Amino acid sequence: MNRDFILLLIYLLEAAVLGIVALTLRKWHSKFPDFRVGYHAGIAQTDEKSWEYANETAGKICALFAVLLLAAGLFCYKMGTGFNIMFGLLLLVSGAGAGSVLFIPVYLLERQDQQKKAEKIIRGSLTAIFVFLALWILWLYAYYHAKNTDNLPALESLQVEELQELEGYKRIQLVTVWDKPDKTVSSKQEVWVLDENRYLLVTYNADGTVKEAEIKQSIY
User: Fold this and answer.
1) What sign does the dihedral 22-23-24-27 (CA atoms) show?
2) Highest mean pLDDT: which of 71-80, 115-124, 179-188?
3) Which residues contact 75 (CB under 8 A, 6 or more apart)?
4) Per-residue pLDDT for 194 more than 80?
5) Whose CB among 34, 120, 128, 166 lies 3.0–4.6 Å from 213's, allowing a Cys bridge?
6) What letter would DSSP give residue 217?
7) What count of other Cβ atoms lies within 10 Å of the Cβ of residue 102?
C-alpha cells in the first residue's frame, strides 16, 4: 500500500466524517432550547430562528467541503499528482473547511443582509463540484475505453484475457508501442514473439485495425 493511497483514504475518511456532521447539524440537531447537539456559538443560541439557521448553514458548509474533499482526493489520486500536492491540498481544503464552518454561520447571523447571497454561493459551489465530477467521470470513461496507445497492454506482460481488448486498435499503434513485428505472415497477419515458447498472431481488418489476436505456441 503506497502513501498516495493512504492519503486518499484520509481524504475519503474526512469526507465521510464531514458528511455525517452535515447530516447531524441539518437533520439531527437538538430542538431549541436544548443545545446539546448542534452548532455551539453564543449568537446561534439567542433564539430558535438563529439556532435553526446556524445549524442549517453549518451543515450545508460541511456538505460542501465533504464533496470537495471527495472530488479532490479522487482526482489527485487518479491523475497521479503525487504525494506532496495531495498532502498540501488536503491541508488547504481541511483548513478552509474548518474555518468556514466555525466562522461563516456566525458572520451571517450578524450580517443577515448577506444570508441570501451566501446561500446562492453555497448552492452554486455544490452544483459546480457535481458538474465537475460528472464531466470528469465521463472523461475517464471515454479515456480508458478509447483505443489509444496509453491503454495498449505491454507486449511482454500480455495475458490471454487481454487479447479481446486489442480488437479495434490500429496497426500503427501496435508498432508504436511494441516496435515492428518479428514476422509478417501476410498483408493481414503479423507475428510478435513473446518468448521462446509463445508468439502473438494479430489479424487485421481491411482498414488496418485489429480483427483478432491469438497467443499460440511457437513453431519456430
Assistant:
1) positive
2) 179-188
3) 136
4) yes
5) 166
6) E
7) 13
Residue with cell 478509447: 146
| Cα–Cα distance for residue pair 93/61, rounded to 1 Å | 12
pLDDT of residue 145: 67
Which of the two residues, 177 and 147, has the higher pLDDT score? Answer: 177
CA-nearest of 50, 53, 49, 26 to 37 is 26
Comparing CA positions, the residue from 61, 73, 67, 56 lying closest to residue 16 is 67
Q: How many alpha carbons fall within 13 Å on the CB side of residue 107?
A: 11
Residue 41, C-beta contacts closer than 8 angstroms, at least 6 positions apart:
54, 105, 106
Q: Which helix (H) or strand (E) holds 202?
A: strand 198-204
CB-CB contact of 57 with 124 (8 Å): no
Bond preceding residue 181 cis, omega within 30 of 0: no
Q: Are the C-beta atoms of residues 182 and 218 closer than 8 Å to each other?
A: no
The pLDDT, as a whole number, for residue 1 is 61
| pLDDT at 220 > cutoff 70 | no
Which residue reads 480508458 in cell numbers?
144
Predicted pLDDT at 130: 82
The owner of cell 466555525 is 102
